[in-house]
């Protein structure tokens, strides 16, 4: 999305986009605190890569469990509360990690951090959807995704800078990141309450008898009724479930790369430690650019072919890494491209989730997609960590490539099952 097109957005949309993009940066920083320093953590806490993989998986599991509760909170009560809870709990988790005296406390910090991070997608996407229009939403989602990739890229830079330049430890870096998150939580609440209207901050409560979801109701359904109707709607929404599956497989592939590419470059290719850590930052930075390109493409072309093509490329470059035929410098390039080109497909997936939603189920549906993402991120670190410990990097990264091809297969199945109709341009009813 160009800066010129950003300037054409209404003031309200710009405020919301800026606010949730900043929150996306913070939350994604929390998600990748471990990968740049897995070797350091393994030595300091006397644990294996597989054990650290289980710790990362525990964070992702808790994140998954709390997706739908936060989606319910966002859809039923208040998006400001959802966003502020997410930022505060995430920052507290980062502080626990920074002070952890044992591996058990590392695990506690990861779990608390996972609870906090769970709230950001169920809050972000409804805010963005209600502040924008269908004609620019794909590009707006791509800017939001760009910010998320900046967040992924930041921890390696922060950690390397603080440890190499100032002589401080990874603990100081974690504490700095947590402090930034806590300050941003205060800023976010102020901006939402002061500059964003209630029509955007509050949930869209609709009369279920109105298919289009335009008529408002003065009575909020009970928790039991909403849970029951939500489950029924999900079971009757195969396209949303398909997006959740797509997100799950894609996340498994990408988190396999994210979690272990630094150790692959260090231990498998002999790349110097700081260079390998910064490669992770470059990977996410390039992914952020791909995210913007993908946003533009998602507003122009059908989404399934974009998803298919991007993950075929992911698989190709990961196979190159797994082959160990590359010199170290070429391996760094392959790692950057393989870990970033999947970002081309993210805005297409997000826009699909939006157009397949009635306005009152935005938080829930984006929570479903995020559940898929988080299940993948729960499975990937322990799975590929064990594969590395037992079979080595070659088998583990070849397995990641196979999973990436699975994403392409799911996207191809979407085309076969729903064809071009899957690129709907109008919101669908709950049972579509």
What global shape is seen? globular
**CATH homologous superfamily caption:** MFS general substrate transporter like domains
Helix percentage: over 70%
What structural class do you assign from the helix and strand content? mainly alpha
Classify the fold: give the CATH topology. Answer: Growth Hormone, Chain: A
Count every beta strand, where a strand is a DSSP E run of 2 or more residues. Answer: 0
Write the layout of secondary structure elements.
Layout: H1 3-7, H2 11-31, H3 38-44, H4 49-65, H5 67-76, H6 79-99, H7 103-117, H8 120-131, H9 137-165, H10 170-195, H11 198-201, H12 223-235, H13 238-269, H14 273-298, H15 303-323, H16 328-338, H17 346-355, H18 362-391, H19 393-418
Helix pairs in contact: 2-6, 2-7, 2-8, 2-9, 2-10, 4-7, 4-18, 5-6, 5-8, 5-18, 6-7, 6-8, 6-10, 8-18, 9-10, 9-14, 9-17, 13-14, 13-16, 13-18, 13-19, 14-16, 14-17, 15-16, 15-17, 15-19, 18-19
In a few lines, what is going on in this structure?
With 432 residues, the protein is an all-alpha fold.
Which descriptors would you attach to this protein?
432 residues; mainly alpha; Growth Hormone, Chain: A; 19 helices; 0% strand; globular; disordered C terminus
């Amino acid at each position: 999305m160009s800066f010129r097109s950003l300037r054409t957005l209404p003031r309200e949309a710009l405020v919301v986009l800026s606010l949730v993009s900043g929150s996306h940066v913070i939350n994604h920083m929390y998600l990748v605190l471990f990968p740049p320093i897995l070797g350091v953590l393994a030595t300091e806490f006397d644990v294996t890569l597989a054990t650290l993989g289980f710790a990362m998986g525990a964070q992702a599991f808790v994140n998954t469990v709390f997706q739908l509760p936060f989606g319910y909170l966002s859809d039923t009560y208040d998006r400001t509360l959802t966003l502020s809870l997410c930022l505060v709990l995430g920052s507290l988790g980062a502080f626990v990690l920074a002070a952890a005296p044992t591996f058990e406390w590392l695990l506690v910090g990861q779990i608390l951090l996972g609870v906090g991070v769970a709230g950001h997608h169920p809050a972000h996407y409804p805010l963005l959807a209600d502040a924008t229009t269908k004609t620019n939403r794909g590009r707006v989602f791509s800017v939001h995704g760009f910010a998320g990739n900046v967040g992924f890229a930041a921890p390696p830079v922060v950690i390397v800078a603080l440890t190499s330049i100032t002589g401080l430890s990874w603990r100081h870096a974690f504490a700095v990141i947590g402090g930034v998150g806590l300050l941003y939580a205060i800023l976010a609440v102020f901006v939402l309450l002061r500059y964003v209207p209630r029509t955007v901050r509050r949930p869209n409560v609709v009369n279920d008898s109105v298919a289009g979801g335009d008529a408002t109701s003065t009575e909020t359904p009970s928790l039991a009724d909403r849970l029951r109707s939500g489950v029924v709607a999900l079971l009757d929404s195969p396209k949303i479930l398909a997006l959740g599956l797509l997100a799950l497989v894609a996340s498994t592939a990408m988190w396999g790369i994210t979690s272990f590419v630094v150790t692959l470059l260090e231990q498998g290719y002999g790349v110097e430690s700081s260079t390998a850590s910064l490669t992770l930052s470059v990977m996410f930075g390039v992914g952020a650019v791909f995210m913007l390109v993908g946003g533009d493409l998602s507003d122009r072309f059908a989404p399934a072919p974009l998803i298919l093509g991007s993950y075929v490329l992911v698989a190709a470059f990961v196979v190159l890494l797994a082959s160990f035929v590359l010199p170290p410098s070429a391996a760094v390039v392959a790692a950057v491209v393989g870990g970033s080109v999947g970002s081309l497909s993210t805005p297409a997936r997000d826009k699909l989730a939006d157009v397949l939603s009635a306005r009152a189920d935005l938080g829930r549906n984006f929570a479903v997609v995020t559940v898929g993402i988080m299940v993948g991120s729960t499975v990937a670190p322990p799975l590929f960590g064990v594969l590395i410990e037992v079979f080595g990097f070659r088998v583990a990264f070849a397995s990641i490539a196979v999973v990436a091809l699975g994403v392409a297969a799911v996207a191809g199945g979407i085309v076969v099952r729903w064809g071009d109709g899957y690129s709907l341009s109008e919101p669908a009813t709950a049972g579509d």
